[in-house]
Design brief:
The chain folds into 4 domains: 93 residues, Helix Hairpins; 138 residues, Heat shock protein DnaJ, cysteine-rich domain (Chaperone, DNAj Protein, Chain A, Ribbon), CATH 2.10.230; 72 residues, HSP40/DNAj peptide-binding domain, CATH 2.60.260.20; 35 residues, no CATH class. Strand 10 and strand 11 form a beta hairpin. Helix 2 packs antiparallel against helix 4. The protein is elongated, with a radius of gyration of 43 Å. It is 25% helix and 27% strand. By secondary structure, the chain is α+β, with helices and mostly antiparallel strands. The strands form 6 sheets. It has a 4-stranded mixed sheet with strand order 10-11-15-14.
């Protein structure tokens, strides 16, 4: 006595979908055209188990009383002839390609490939957003045939081998009897039609290689590596198929005096020592033009001045980052005698005159010190 659950390899709690999947898997393995002769009984047992367990009423009767409760259910005396092989239709299609004919002839039209183009942009472009002209080498629909692939005034003709179906069907003899198989028609490659006179301008492809200058919008806030997708702006597909997508990869050029970190910008302002001590106002070039920057009295090297809202526009958000200005204090060099005296007086007034400047020695003095040790 067979245990139908064990035959299918499922538990007694398996639902209908699990039972169906298990049956299809077993049937593929044991089908005579796959496993070869000698597996007919196993195939029959799997089919019998599925016939019972896939029917809620029969499954309930089997669970209550086993095979006896089914009153001889199953294949019966007819063997394979009495079996219900309706669910094997999908299996036969996967074995023999029987579903191809129901789908009809294939289409020549295919989607075009996506394109990737590198775009160099200035810092001002990514700060404010911009519109740029980008050269692109791509495929466009053939203007001569309009994507039909045929020479003007001609049309595809129905394939004489398959009569436009795109498939050739043949009878194959198996242990279960004759099975209909189908495959793509070799005369038309499955399209159902033949292009007798292809378009000369595109060689029957329905598209041509072309150079285009595209106007593209660069949104504020993008950075190096950002990819902008332009749907339907990629290559035209063969035979009038839909266009692919165009992707723009941003490459940001380095600025002369501004450094970017996210939405913020950084720069330096070089000021004389006296200005840092006394305080002053200086002009500063920014992406928004010249701005006046106030350096407070007593500013130290490395102090930072923040100019709000003068940075880079935020991607997909409102507002802009900030401009950070680092103060660089320049120490005077090449002082004349009067300037040295004034600085010395300042040092004395501040109580800093104990810091003596280095002594300047003559060349003869240095030689004497080397040989005498004094």
């Amino acid at each position: 006595m067979s245990n139908y659950y064990e035959v299918l390899g499922v538990s007694r709690e398996a639902d209908a979908e699990e039972i169906k999947k298990a049956y299809r898997r077993k049937a593929r393995q044991l089908h005579p055209d796959v496993a070869g002769p000698g597996h007919e009984e196993e195939f029959k047992a799997v089919s019998t188990a599925y016939e019972v367990l896939s029917d809620p009423e029969k499954r309930q009767m089997y669970d209550l009383g086993g095979e006896e409760a089914l009153h001889g259910g199953g294949f019966g005396p007819g063997g394979f002839a009495g079996a219900d092989f309706g669910d094997l239709g999908g299996i036969f299609q996967s074995f023999f390609g029987g579903g191809a004919g129901s789908r009809g002839p294939a289409s020549r039209a295919r989607r075009g490939q996506d394109s990737l183009v590198a775009v160099e942009v200035e810092l001002s472009d990514v700060a404010f957003g911009a519109t740029r002209t980008v050269p692109v080498d791509t495929y466009v629909v053939c203007t001569t045939c309009g994507g039909s692939c045929c020479a003007p005034g001609t049309d595809p003709v129905t394939c004489s081998q398959c009569n436009g179906t795109g498939t050739i069907q043949r009878m194959t003899r198996t242990l279960l009897g004759q099975v209909m198989t189908s495959s793509p028609c070799p005369g038309c490659q499955g399209y159902g039609t033949v292009i007798v006179t292809p378009c000369k301008d595109c060689s029957g492809e329905g598209r041509k290689h072309a150079h285009q200058d595209l106007e593209v919008a660069i949104p504020a806030g993008v950075s190096t590596g950002t990819r902008i997708r332009m749907s339907g702006r990629g290559e035209a597909g063969p035979a009038g198929g839909p266009n692919g997508d165009l992707y723009l990869e941003i490459h940001e050029k380095r600025h002369d005096f501004l450094e970017r970190d996210g939405d913020d910008l950084y720069t330096e302002l070089r000021v004389p020592m006296t200005a840092a001590a006394l305080g002053a106002r200086f002009p500063l070039q920014t992406l928004d033009g010249e701005r006046q920057v106030t350096v407070k009295a007593g500013s130290q090297p490395g102090d930072e001045i923040v100019l709000d809202g003068l940075g880079v526009g935020r991607l997909r958000r409102k507002g802009r980052g900030d401009l950070h200005v680092t103060v660089v204090v320049e120490t005077p060099t090449g002082l004349d005698e009067r300037q040295r005296q004034l600085l010395a007086e300042l040092a004395s007034l501040r109580g800093e005159d104990d810091v003596a400047p280095p002594r300047e020695e003559s060349v003869m003095g240095k030689l004497k010190e080397r040989f005498t040790g004094r």
